[in-house]
Write a structure and sequence with these properties.
By secondary structure, the protein is of the alpha/beta class. The chain has three domains: 100 residues, Rossmann fold (3-Layer(aba) Sandwich); 116 residues, Cobalt-precorrin-4 Transmethylase, domain 1, CATH 3.40.1010.10; 138 residues, Tetrapyrrole methylase, C-terminal domain (Methyltransferase, Cobalt-precorrin-4 Transmethylase, Domain 2). It is built from 18 helices and 20 strands. Strands 15-16-19-17-18-20 form a six-stranded mixed β-sheet, sandwiched between helices. Strands 3-2-1-4-5 form a five-stranded parallel β-sheet, with helices on both faces. Strand 2, helix 2 and strand 3 form a beta-alpha-beta unit. It is elongated. Bound molecules: S-adenosyl-L-homocysteine.
């Protein structure tokens, strides 16, 4: 970060503006909006600028710039097209530790003007550090259309209730939860639709009736998708940004985790195969404990929380403790990996249904119904099946599935390390012995796998003919 964004309180502070033309006028307008006392020094001051100064207790001096003008100034802005003069002003200001901005000359600036979205008292400043001001302005235009004009109103009303809320709720956390609820809920919606009076009455009631000691938090069970943060839903992102505590699994990618609220406590509760970092009951207890403290708890899982994610079990515990929750679906591995491998899970010519199956076999003897799994015209997707691939394949063949059925492994799907290995039910396990694709990996079985050759569009292909055995044979 080359610049630290700060918001300057400049009301009635003295600022020197060098230059009297249009550029100076634009800067003067901004300064006056912030209540600054502006002194302009220039050989010529345009009428509009002079009027602005007259209306805002500013003053102008017609003449030559000299360093003594910097005395008592908190900021200086040079809006001249005289390079030598700009250099001199820069030198004089920095020598006196006065922040300086030379318009359109980033190398002579110690601060820059951001593009501004003004919803006073809410103000957003966007800066590219002087390197791409057009980009900053484009972003500003987007925000202008996206942030309701009445955000300012919302902020003013919140401000007028601030002291009351402070008295009512003693802890910072209670106050934050209260405000987040107000600013994103029904009250905010009323203000946006112009029903300010109703909103104010509701807010007053909410302050009077809330019980600060017994504010129960909420749990958001969120599907973090397969890893690429762009595959998150808007809702997942919004709730992740509100988290006080985040409990996350091993499958949640760092890039996704990075999008949680900066101040949130991140707790890893991941499970590696056969090695539970925190047992399931421990996770359930943690969720309850944090929510009962009034926290907003994000339970972040890879893929979709309701597909081999134990999401249901966690919600049952919350329900038993009367803790409110929301569930946000995520893109499950089957969907993500097949899409990124160019393998449509259904196809009118090859598969009319698809089954998501766990590949984890208890005690190496399966409780799966293989007779059902071998039905034709369906695609099978095995989760957690990399280590049981040899058994899965032979069981399917044993129960009547042809050994020639196309099959694929998609490893680390959607990531830049994605690898796809294709073969048949009879050959895939042997190929994998050599290829050693890494977990997490998904196995897809069915005629649709043949489409991969034509539709593949992402990631790396592992070609069977290039595979050499992992242990050299003698
Ligand atoms: N709830 C998750 C699944 C959890 S089970 C979901 O909906 O996706 C864990 C299994 O998911 C892994 O063993 C693997 O089979 C699969 N998996 C998850 N992410 C994957 C990825 N990026 N690439 C390949 N397989 C993945």
């Amino acid at each position: 970060m080359d610049y630290l964004p700060l918001f300057f309180k400049l009301t009635q502070q003295n600022v020197l503006l060098v230059g009297g033309g249009n550029v100076a006028l634009r800067k003067a307008r901004l300064l006056c909006r912030a209540g600054t006392t502006v002194t302009v020094i220039a050989h010529h001051v345009c009428d509009e600028l002079q009027d602005l100064l007259d209306e805002n207790q500013g003053s102008s001096i017609v003449g030559e710039y000299h360093p003594a003008l910097l005395d008592g100034k908190v900021l200086v802005i040079a809006a001249t097209d005289d390079n030598a003069l700009n250099q001199r002003i820069h030198f004089d200001a920095t020598e006196r530790n006065i922040p300086i901005n030379v318009v359109d000359c980033p190398e002579l600036c110690t601060f820059v003007f951001p593009a501004i979205v003004d919803r006073s008292p809410v103000i957003i400043g966007i800066s590219s550090g002087g390197s791409a001001p057009v980009l900053a302005r484009l972003l500003r235009a987007r925000l202008e259309t996206w942030i309701p004009k009445s955000y300012g109103k919302l902020a003013s009303i919140a401000s007028s209730f601030r002291d009351q809320v402070k008295q009512r709720f003693s802890s910072v956390n209670q106050r934050r939860v209260f405000w987040e609820d107000v600013l994103q809920g029904q009250i905010a919606e009323k203000i946006f639709s112009g029903r300010t009076e109703e909103a104010t009455t509701l807010l007053q009631e909410k302050i009077e009736h809330a019980d600060p000691e017994h504010q129960v938090g909420e749990v958001y069970l969120i599907g973090g998708g397969p890893g690429d943060p762009e595959l998150l839903t808007f809702k997942a992102l919004r709730l992740m940004q509100q988290a006080d505590v985040v409990l996350y699994d091993a499958l949640v990618s760092p890039a996704v985790l990075d999008l949680c609220r900066r101040d949130a406590d991140l707790i890893f509760v991941g499970k590696k195969r056969d090695n539970h970092a925190v047992p399931q009951e421990g996770i359930n207890d943690l969720l309850v404990k944090h929510a009962q403290k009034g926290k907003r708890v994000v339970r972040l899982k890879g893929g979709d929380p309701f597909i081999f994610g134990r999401g249901g079990e966690e919600l049952e515990t919350l329900k038993a403790h009367n803790i409110p929750f929301q569930v946000v679906p995520g893109i499950t591995a089957a969907s993500a990996c097949s899409t990124y491998a160019g393998i449509p899970l259904t196809h009118r010519n090859y598969a009319q249904s698809v089954k998501f199956v766990t590949g984890q076999l208890k005690n190496r003897t399966s409780d799966l119904n293989f007779d059902e799994l071998v039905h034709p015209n369906q695609t099978l997707v095995f989760y957690m099946g990399l280590h049981t691939l040899p058994q899965l394949s032979s069981k399917l063949i044993e129960h009547g599935k042809s050994g020639d059925t196309p099959a694929a492994i998609v490893s680390k799907g959607t990531s830049s390390d994605q690898k796809v290995l294709t073969g048949t039910l009879a050959t895939l396990a042997k190929l994998q012995e050599k290829a050693q694709l890494e977990a997490p990996a998904l196995i897809i079985v069915g005629e649709v796998v043949n489409l991969h050759e034509n539709l593949s569009w992402f990631g790396e292909e592992v070609l069977a003919q290039n595979l050499t055995p992992v242990t050299a044979e003698k």
